[in-house]
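Technical annex, item 7. During the second reporting period the consortium partners agreed on a shared format for inverse folding records so that results from different sites could be compared directly. Each record opens with the tokenized structure and is followed by the designed sequence. A conforming record, contributed by the partner at site C, is shown below for reference.
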């Protein structure tokens, strides 16, 4: 026998150093963790959402403890039993002699090693399990859906709430048994209970019993797994074009799973019997039967049925299962009550079948009558909120410490009894705009603490006269004045309260003299008015302990040293409205576009909260983050998680007060019943979600259909609008979301949906709605037009206008191409695209005009390329059938397309002073473009071109200097020069050739 391996020892000094380092590491880790948890708790306490904090903490702790103790304890018990029943005498073969050195090294440290094994496995399992706290809460508080699945007849709640928990529990059970089996095998091998190379018996009696029991438990769990697999068939993807149990799954794989349940159960009994029978042939034979059965019945037979029975006639075999998939998917995505309207199918055919023929007098009069009676045209949006952020900044920023988000918002207000949509924004604090001498800790966190002001401009208007082309800010300036009454305009919570991914915190209140910059003082100079925050928001840091806590949390010693921090101070943090709602309601997926609204004189951020699930039977899996990405969000920039799910409801409307940060959640009930997922979480977190009846009428009037949900639903409808299962399988009537034509060719992302005020066919008046065009699959022709109502009385009603499938209606990309190639538009684009300016196309709106057909309207802006340049509306384009209108105003463009009287319905029907109306004849798309040199050397054309260049230079200089009067004059000069150029061009075209 070889001597035992000596155990290396450490010097006293080394032990002290290692011990000190270990203590410091543990201390820093514990202090950091406890600080983070305490700061979190203070936030929840401030917002009155401590119920969420404690429920989540308790649930995580419960899962951590139960799973950790079960995993570590049971595995350690199995290893201990293997050691406890080790053989007393072992034949000293070469194998056992080699293992003896390990036994002698382990023996003195056996208890320590066993404890360490239990702790490590317990911690790992506990940390893994606590992340599934939502799964446990859903299982614990499950609410019935009131609907059953078509295959098993079980309530949908079983699949959404119960099945995921059963799978989770089974997974941990498998892991525990497998770890116990591995630990037992290794222990028996080291201590002689398992002898692989020793002649004679390979297993001791105790080893055979323990390993038989563990393998039997593992196979028994496999039988349970086969039983659960039966229900998992409702998520099968075998059907290729649809989700859910297919013909093969139901008729071949489901019977196979039933058989395997009994085979696995028999195999488990065989292993348990081996404890008494002591015959390895019985369990080995049972295991072989299980393996053969799983290969034959679970793999080969279903594959044969799929290949030889289903595929040759899949469209017929799968009909019943496709119908299930269509119905379940539409229900899961809230699309089961869509109104489909055959559109433009009974009109006189003209340039395009199904639309009015404007060459026919009767059809022209009918189209004009539709235009005159439709409020859609009078509300046609000329301001694009996705383009005008720079314009809002240039005209309403006031000071460099303020800013506006890159994407503005659309909302509606009733002013003087008229419903009007507005481009809206709040003037937020933007710390990225602070100058170098403003960026000290005192300035960033105690002086520049908030924004100020609400800004709104009617979406269908621009300023007339010399400054034409700019938004008409009917509400704005500092202090805020205008049509919309704002009593509290200070913005302490907003979308810009996050710089480079870091939360912008502020220390407010508690100073004898106001120190927070509030707004510039009227008159000349840089004088300012300061204020002191007196709102309910924020966490008090009056005690030394809390000041120390936040000093550690933010790693900032000024919390302890600065005179700006005293016993009356508060800290404002987690100030992004989206982050606040996500933190207050972690069970919600929050829409990526909060928008501000003035409610009872206060600015409130309104957000949409979604309850989701990835376990709805027969419904197609989608990714909300992917579906919400379009040409304006960009890939990867959406605020939504890129996670898979197949059920969604906009079940919560949330508000965040822009002044005090108050978070309020309202249950947004469905007409028939509240969402079961929301009800489940309301049981888990009682009292945090208020009923819809608590919402004021004014708040409800500003609720809008969420954009990200609409993007998802329109994506689903491109396939699931087909009700016939054979047609669905063949995919011969598929739609697709068109590419955004205004971003071509740089982007091929989908066109975003647009909020508009319009009158839908069949409605008596205009309403605020979210709309989108849909093309034929892999074609640029228009197939449908979808709209979702945001009006309180018809909220959520989705209407789809179906266009005739045999008619080549122009889609958005085709219309955009027609615009850009038009002989009147193309020269202007060349002029606008210079060293000093560039053309910017606004949103291409698709508008149904009664039963007359669809009209496309698009604003064209010009933006200076110099520093401080911003887009201003210059032209409006209109398309109807093969007619194109291009003019200074929407009224003139409509007149060009429809003839005299058509422009009277437009909001800009009165020609602005100083503007020259464009020719009223329709633009002829067939006319060839003028020569690049502007004609045959006409002095008039050359003079006009020189005037255009001079005006562009003047405009660029004025924008760089932020000289608004000079900008207005330069725009007027540019417009006059362009009009002169067009007039000279028209005169040259009409002159006889030499």
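Designed sequence (site C submission):
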């Amino acid at each position: 026998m070889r001597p035992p391996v000596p155990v290396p020892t450490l010097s006293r000094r080394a032990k002290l150093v290692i011990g000190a380092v270990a203590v410091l590491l543990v201390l820093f880790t514990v202090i950091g963790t406890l600080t983070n948890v305490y700061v979190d708790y203070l936030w929840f306490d401030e917002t009155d959402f401590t119920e969420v904090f404690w429920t989540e903490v308790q649930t995580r702790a419960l899962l951590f403890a139960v799973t950790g103790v079960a995993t570590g304890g049971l595995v350690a018990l199995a290893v201990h039993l293997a050691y406890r029943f080790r053989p007393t005498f072992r034949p000293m073969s070469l194998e056992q002699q080699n293992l003896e050195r390990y036994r002698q090294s382990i023996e003195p440290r056996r208890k320590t090693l066993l404890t360490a094994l239990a702790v490590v496995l317990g911690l790992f399992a506990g940390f893994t399990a606590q992340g599934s706290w939502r799964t446990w809460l859903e299982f614990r508080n499950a609410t019935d859906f009131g609907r059953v699945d078509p295959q098993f007849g079980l309530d949908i709640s079983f699949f959404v709430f119960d099945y995921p928990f059963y799978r989770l529990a089974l997974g941990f059970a498998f892991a525990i048994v497998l770890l116990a089996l591995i630990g037992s095998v290794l222990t028996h091998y080291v201590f002689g209970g398992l002898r692989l190379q020793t002649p004679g018996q390979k297993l001791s009696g105790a080893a055979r019993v323990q390993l038989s029991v563990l393998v039997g438990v593992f196979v028994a769990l496999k039988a349970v797994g086969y039983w659960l697999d039966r229900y998992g068939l409702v998520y099968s993807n075998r059907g290729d074009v649809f989700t859910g149990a297919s013909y093969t799954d139901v008729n071949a794989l489901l019977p196979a799973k039933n058989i395997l349940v009994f085979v696995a159960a028999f195999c488990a009994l065989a292993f348990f019997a081996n404890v008494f029978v002591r015959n390895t042939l019985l369990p080995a034979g049972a295991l072989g039967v299980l393996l053969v059965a799983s290969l034959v019945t679970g793999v080969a037979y279903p594959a044969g049925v799929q290949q030889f029975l289903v595929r040759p006639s899949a469209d017929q075999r799968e009909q019943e299962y496709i119908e299930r998939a269509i119905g379940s998917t539409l229900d899961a995505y809230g699309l089961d009550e869509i109104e489909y309207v055959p559109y433009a199918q009974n009109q006189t055919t003209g340039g395009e079948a199904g639309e009015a023929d404007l060459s026919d007098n009767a059809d022209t009069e009918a189209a004009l009558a539709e235009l005159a009676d439709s409020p859609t045209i009078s509300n046609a949006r000329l301001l694009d909120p996705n383009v005008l952020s720079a314009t809002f900044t240039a005209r309403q920023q006031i000071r460099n410490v303020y800013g506006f988000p890159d994407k503005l918002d659309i909302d509606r207000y009733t002013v003087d009894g008229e419903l009007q949509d507005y481009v809206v924004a709040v003037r937020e604090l933007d710390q990225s705009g602070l100058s170098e001498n403003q960026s000290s800790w005192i300035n960033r966190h105690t002086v520049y603490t908030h924004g100020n002001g609400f800004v709104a401009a009617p979406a269908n208007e621009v300023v007339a006269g010399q400054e034409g082309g700019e938004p008409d800010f009917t509400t704005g300036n500092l202090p805020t004045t205008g049509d919309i009454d704002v009593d509290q305009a200070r913005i302490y919570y907003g979308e810009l309260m996050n710089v480079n991914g870091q939360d912008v915190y502020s220390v407010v209140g508690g100073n004898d003299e106001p120190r927070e910059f509030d707004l510039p003082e009227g008159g000349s100079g840089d004088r300012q008015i300061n204020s002191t925050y007196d709102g309910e928001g924020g966490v008090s840091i009056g005690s030394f302990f809390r000041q120390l806590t936040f000093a550690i949390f933010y790693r900032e010693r000024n919390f302890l040293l600065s005179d700006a921090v005293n016993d009356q101070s508060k800290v404002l943090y987690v100030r992004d409205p989206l982050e606040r709602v996500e933190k207050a309601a972690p069970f919600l997926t929050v829409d990526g576009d909060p928008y501000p609204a003035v409610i009872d004189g206060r600015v409130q951020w309104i957000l949409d909260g979604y309850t989701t699930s990835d376990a709805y039977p027969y419904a197609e899996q989608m990714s909300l983050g992917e579906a919400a990405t379009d040409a304006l969000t960009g890939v990867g920039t959406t605020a939504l998680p890129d996670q898979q799910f197949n059920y969604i409801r906009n079940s919560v409307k949330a508000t965040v007060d822009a002044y005090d940060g108050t978070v309020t959640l309202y249950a947004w009930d469905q007409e028939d019943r509240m969402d079961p997922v929301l009800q489940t979480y309301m049981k888990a977190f009682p009292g945090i979600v208020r009923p819809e009846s608590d919402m004021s009428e004014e708040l409800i009037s500003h609720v809008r259909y969420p954009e990200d949900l609409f993007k998802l639903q329109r994506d689903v409808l491109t396939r699931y609008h087909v009700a016939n299962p054979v047609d669905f399988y063949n995919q011969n009537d598929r739609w697709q979301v068109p590419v955004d034509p205004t971003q071509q060719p740089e982007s091929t992302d989908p066109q975003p949906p647009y909020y508009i005020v319009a009158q839908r066919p069949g409605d008596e008046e205009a309403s605020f709605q979210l709309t989108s065009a849909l093309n034929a699959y892999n074609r640029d022709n228009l197939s449908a037009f979808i709209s979702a109502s945001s009006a309180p009385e018809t909220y959520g009603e989705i209407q789809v206008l179906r266009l005739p499938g045999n008619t080549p209606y122009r889609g958005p990309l085709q219309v955009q191409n027609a615009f850009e190639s038009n002989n009147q538009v193309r020269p202007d684009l060349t002029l606008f695209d210079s060293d000093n300016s560039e053309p910017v196309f606004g949103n291409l709106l698709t508008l149904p005009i009664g039963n007359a057909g669809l009209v496309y309207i698009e604003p064209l802006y010009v933006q200076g390329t110099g520093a401080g340049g911003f887009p201003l509306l210059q032209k409006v384009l209109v398309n109807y059938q093969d007619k194109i209108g291009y003019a200074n105003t929407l009224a003139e463009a409509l007149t060009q397309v429809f003839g005299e009287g058509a422009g009277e319905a437009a909001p800009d029907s009165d020609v602005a002073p100083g503007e020259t109306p464009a020719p009223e004849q329709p633009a002829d798309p067939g006319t060839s473009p003028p020569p690049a040199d502007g004609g045959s050397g006409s002095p008039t054309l050359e003079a006009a071109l020189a005037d255009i260049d001079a005006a562009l230079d003047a405009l660029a200089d004025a924008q760089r200097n932020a000289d608004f009067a000079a900008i207005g004059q330069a725009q007027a000069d540019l417009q006059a020069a362009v009009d002169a150029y067009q007039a000279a061009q028209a005169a040259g075209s009409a002159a006889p050739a030499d």
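The chain has 28 helices and 35 strands. The longest strand covers residues 602-613. All partners now use this format for quarterly exchanges.
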